[in-house]
């Protein structure tokens, strides 16, 4: 409906005037009603005349008319107060504001999904408190707690004063073998340990010091709210604290000792892979070439958002052929893409959408090994990170493949998989204006890889500046842990956690140039300075949605 700012002002004045008029009429009618009700009857009873009513018909009709008028105006006034936006424009505006990160704090709070910071039930608060208590125990951070059990699930704790920190870690479950066995099984009897995380948990406690585990956790946190990170694991394990702790610690073990996420994949990045392609070492050259090949062809890439504001990862399945890249390079590229997508998450959006473009798919493109690895990543190491999985234009031959893959998936993950046969069906999740033309949408955008620029990571050699920012982060981490410790001990409300979490997020983005190598998305302006996001760089905000998000 066309209109201008002037039209909006006129409409506002008109509506305000209507409200004022209704209020005045309402007062006048109430006053008249009181007068009529209090006044004596117009016609008095006369002796000897038959009586049918104490009120003559004229009074009765007048009173009825006034009462009806009051009811009408009161109803109209209430309806206007309740429905100030009958066109639904406000709802559309809110969706756009969520995507752009422009909602006020109260509006944003209303958008927070359940089980996240700011939207926890009392029982979930208790579970989070228990989770923090157990996590601090693993880190060797001194704190007081009453070790209260909740709903039959106890928080792992040391039963005796430890002689050393290492003994403290190993005694977390030392005398609680029965609890450890139940920690790997959910309440409904389904196993949660199909990836052997209990063993990884025990290996982590045996091989790493509390301080190493602590550093691994805060390295993994990055710009996330620390509570939000723990809550991911709690939700994934149905609020079973011990099972969530096992999952968390095994994930830190996987990141630091198996995949080397932060000290290799993300810190070295694309520029290192490019330099490896020039290596005289055949194995290194192969790894670098395989990694760069996947980037250059756009086997998978991040672009835009879905209707819920989630970052979208597109996987062009026809570009994969078994054996063309090494298993190691496929895994590193997968983790690199997931970690880069994490850089694009801002509250209240904490999940991403994957679109598997099956156009041109044949069995030559089918490779179960990387599929299994991707499933493990999301189920075991990046819990509660998938918003939806969209399988686009899958041919009939994929039906048999899907039956196999579905059998590997956790039911919760499988429920997030949807099939779209054409662009109209795909537009149920992604606006057609933001679906690339390659997939039948209206967005005039094509993936094109921008090569690393020489010297783009020179900040990483500025160790003095890096150490200064990291020293500030260390102090913030200590402050956060102190706030949590007081909260766990019942000595405070823990309200300061959100304030410190905000400062930790801001600090991370100052530290980011020293820790994470530049990516394609930094070079193209999707990820800007200080963590600023622009999912559609270079596009007019009116046509693309102009998704600009600041650090929350």
UniProtKB/TrEMBL annotation:
Listed Basic residues bias regions: 166-179
Pfam families: CRAL_TRIO, CRAL_TRIO_N
Domain of life: Eukaryota
Region: Disordered, residue numbers: 1-21, 145-195
Biased composition (Polar residues): 180-189
Domain CRAL-TRIO span(s) in chain numbering: 302-447
Biased composition (Basic and acidic residues): 1-10
Protein name stated in the entry: Phosphatidylinositol transfer protein csr1
Species for this entry: Recurvomyces mirabilis
């Amino acid at each position: 409906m066309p209109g201008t700012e002037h039209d909006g002002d006129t409409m506002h004045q008109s509506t305000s005037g209507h409200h004022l008029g209704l209020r005045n009429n309402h007062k006048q009618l109430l006053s008249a009603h009181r007068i009529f009700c209090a006044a004596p009857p117009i016609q008095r009873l006369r002796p000897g005349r038959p009586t049918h009513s104490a009120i003559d018909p004229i009074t009765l009709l007048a009173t009825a008319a006034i009462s009806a008028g009051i009811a009408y105006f009161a109803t109209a006034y209430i309806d206007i107060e309740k429905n100030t936006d009958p066109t639904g424009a406000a709802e559309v505006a809110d969706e756009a504001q969520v995507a752009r990160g422009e909602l006020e704090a109260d509006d944003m709070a209303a958008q927070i999904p359940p089980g996240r910071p700011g939207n926890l039930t009392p029982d979930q608060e208790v579970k989070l408190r228990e989770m923090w208590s157990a996590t601090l125990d693993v880190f060797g951070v001194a704190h007081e707690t009453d070790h209260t059990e909740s709903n039959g699930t106890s928080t792992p704790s040391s039963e005796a004063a430890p002689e050393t920190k290492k003994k403290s870690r190993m005694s977390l479950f030392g005398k609680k073998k029965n609890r450890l066995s139940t920690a790997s099984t959910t309440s409904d009897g389904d196993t949660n340990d199909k990836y052997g995380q209990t063993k990884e948990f025990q290996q982590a406690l045996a091989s790493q010091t509390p301080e190493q585990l602590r550093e691994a956790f805060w390295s993994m946190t990055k710009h996330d709210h620390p509570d939000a990170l723990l809550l991911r694991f709690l939700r994934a394990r149905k609020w079973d604290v011990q099972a969530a702790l096992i999952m968390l610690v095994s994930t830190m073990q996987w990141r630091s000792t198996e995949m080397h996420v932060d000290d290799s994949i993300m810190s070295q990045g694309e520029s290192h892979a490019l330099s490896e392609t020039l290596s005289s070492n055949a194995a290194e050259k192969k790894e670098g070439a395989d990694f760069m090949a996947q980037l250059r062809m756009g086997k998978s890439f991040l672009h835009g958002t879905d209707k819920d504001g989630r970052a979208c990862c597109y996987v062009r399945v026809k570009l994969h052929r078994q054996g063309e890249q090494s298993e190691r390079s496929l895994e590193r590229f997968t983790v690199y893409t997931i970690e880069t997508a994490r850089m694009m998450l801002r509250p209240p959006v904490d999940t991403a959408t994957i679109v598997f473009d099956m156009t041109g798919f044949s069995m030559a493109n089918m490779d179960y090994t990387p599929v299994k690895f991707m499933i493990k990543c999301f189920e075991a190491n990046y819990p509660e990170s998938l918003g939806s999985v969209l399988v686009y234009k899958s041919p009939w031959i994929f039906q048999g493949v899907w039956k196999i893959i579905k059998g590997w998936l956790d039911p919760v993950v499988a429920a997030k998989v949807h099939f779209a046969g054409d662009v109209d069906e795909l537009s149920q999740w992604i606006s057609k204006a933001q679906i690339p033309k390659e997939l039948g949408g209206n967005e005039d955008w094509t993936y094109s890889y921008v090569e690393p620029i020489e010297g783009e990571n020179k900040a990483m050699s500025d160790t003095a500046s890096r150490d200064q920012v990291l020293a500030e982060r260390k102090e913030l981490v200590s402050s956060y842990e102190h706030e949590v410790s007081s909260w766990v001990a019942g000595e405070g409300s823990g309200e300061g956690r959100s304030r410190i979490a905000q400062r930790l997020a801001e600090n991370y983005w100052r530290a980011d140039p020293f820790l994470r190598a530049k990516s394609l998305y930094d070079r193209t302006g999707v990820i800007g300075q200080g963590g600023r996001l622009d999912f559609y760089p270079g596009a007019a905000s009116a046509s693309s949605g102009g998704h600009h998000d600041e650090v929350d």
